[in-house]
Design a protein that fits this description.
- The chain has one helix and 23 strands.
- By secondary structure, the protein is mainly beta.
- It folds into two domains: 44 residues; 392 residues, Beta Barrel (Porin).
- The radius of gyration is 29 Å and the shape is elongated.
């Protein structure tokens, strides 16, 4: 009797519990919807963008870079923007020495002498001298606040901090924007100030000192200021154009502490290596023009830039993006093409000759050489509005971008006799894969 009574009691409890669970299902669904609505309301005034990029050079550097951007619309018409970036680089980086038929030996930057070097690396005959132990990581975070000063005027204040293993950087900026012509014309002006603190691994080398002596100094610094003025004009319902002028000036330690210059004899054989030395100031001036034209099934963005500086570099850039929406406007393809060309800096020399006075300013860094480059890209994007249910919005998008980059040096000086048949100035080829998400 007790067993039967106990069994019946247990059965009744199970039935009651099942009814409670079944009866609570609508409540659970309601609570789930309430949570979803709360999250949607919290994100209602936010625009979120994220991307993860993988960059790879042929036989050289590779990099991983996640980026997160968040934009928040304020009730007073203002806006907050936040950005976070992390870069991880590794691989082989050219050290500036000239390719030669002889085997060349180098030490890691942290060494005080060859005997104390943690990493000794040798470069085989005919190969470009690169440091195979290169690695670096960078963390950067920035924020800006745009506040309305009147119905037609806005001010933006911003700041950014960047940290690397051997480098700190802090930037502050301020800008004003004013609308005219029924808000069809916007004029802006902005200023920024950057302060960098450099602590090269192993110390900052004495400029033009003999590499084998490992003469190093302490920390170094540099400072930069810049001004940018621009105008944006609505030309028609489908066409917007903008143009700006910018000037910036950097002063202080502008050398790359890890770059060398080969000193060669008449036959072209390396006799020694010197640390580079660049001017201690640089002023850049540039003009930029961009046009955007859109229609129902696509858009075109074309821009051009011209830059000149006090180092003797003049560069031109042209870029074209064509976006084409598929029927339904929920997917698009965007091919792009970028062309770049620059002449060499006044003090660029692939090497210096022994027995000849060394220039007071000299660098063999290929980034300061005369070259042209082409970038071919293709981007695919699709809207996810219908796939996210209650969280979907018109700006929700997943995209993938693939780019191929090729850089070729121009007007290369003839190499020394011993380098005949060697590729002293190899092409730089790289590709970029990026996956992005917008909400």
């Amino acid at each position: 009797m007790q067993l039967e009574a106990g069994g019946g009691n247990l059965r009744n409890k199970l039935i009651a519990a099942s009814c409670a669970l079944l009866g609570g299902a609508p409540v659970a669904r309601a609570q789930s919807h309430e949570v979803a609505d709360t999250i949607s309301r919290a994100l209602e005034d936010w625009q979120l963008d994220g991307a993860f990029a993988y960059y790879h050079e042929n036989g050289r550097i590779q990099a991983l870079e996640p980026v997160i951007n968040a934009e928040h619309q304020l009730a007073d018409g203002g806006q907050l923007d936040f950005e976070f970036t992390f870069d991880s680089l590794s691989g082989s980086s050219p050290n500036g020495a000239l390719t030669n038929r002889q085997i060349q030996t180098f030490a890691s930057p942290s060494a005080k002498s060859f005997a104390q070097a943690r990493h000794i690396y040798t470069v085989a005959s005919g190969n470009l001298p690169v440091d195979p132990n290169y690695s670096d990581a960078r963390v950067a975070a920035g924020a800006s606040w745009t506040l309305p000063l009147s119905r037609l005027m806005r001010a933006t204040l911003g700041g950014k901090f960047s940290y690397e293993d051997d480098f700190y950087s802090a930037t502050v900026s301020a800008a004003l924007e004013r609308d005219f012509n029924d808000k069809n014309t916007t004029v802006s002006i902005g200023v920024n100030s950057e302060n960098d603190f450099l602590q090269p691994i192993g110390g900052a080398p004495a400029p033009l000192s003999d590499y084998s002596l490992f003469e190093k100094n302490g920390h170094e610094s540099k400072r930069g200021v810049g001004v940018l003025a621009g105008v944006t004009q609505v030309m028609s319902r489908h066409w917007i154009t903008l143009a700006n002028l910018s000037v910036d000036r950097f002063s202080g330690y502008l050398n790359d502490p890890y770059k060398l210059v080969s000193v060669i004899d008449a036959a072209g054989n390396p006799q020694s290596y010197l640390y580079e030395n660049r001017p201690d100031s640089r002023t850049r001036r540039s003009v930029y023009w961009e046009n955007r034209v859109g229609w129902s099934q696509g858009s075109v963005t074309a821009d051009a830039r011209y830059m000149t500086d006090t180092w003797g570099i003049h560069s031109e850039t042209a870029q074209l993006h064509l976006r084409w929406w598929l029927p339904g406007r929920d997917q698009y393809f965007e091919p792009s093409l970028r062309w770049y060309k620059q002449n060499a800096a006044d003090f660029f020399h692939p090497w210096v000759s022994s027995g000849v006075a060394v220039p007071t300013e000299v660098s063999s860094d290929f980034r300061l050489a005369a070259f042209h480059a082409l970038t071919y890209g293709l981007k695919y994007g699709c809207k996810l509005t219908d796939h996210l249910g209650r969280f979907g919005r018109d700006t929700t998008e997943l995209n993938v971008r693939l780019e191929y980059y090729e850089q070729t040096l121009d007007g290369n000086p003839a190499g020394p006799p011993s380098s005949s048949g060697l590729d002293l100035y190899p092409k730089l080829q790289a590709f970029l894969l990026q996956i992005g998400f917008s909400y």
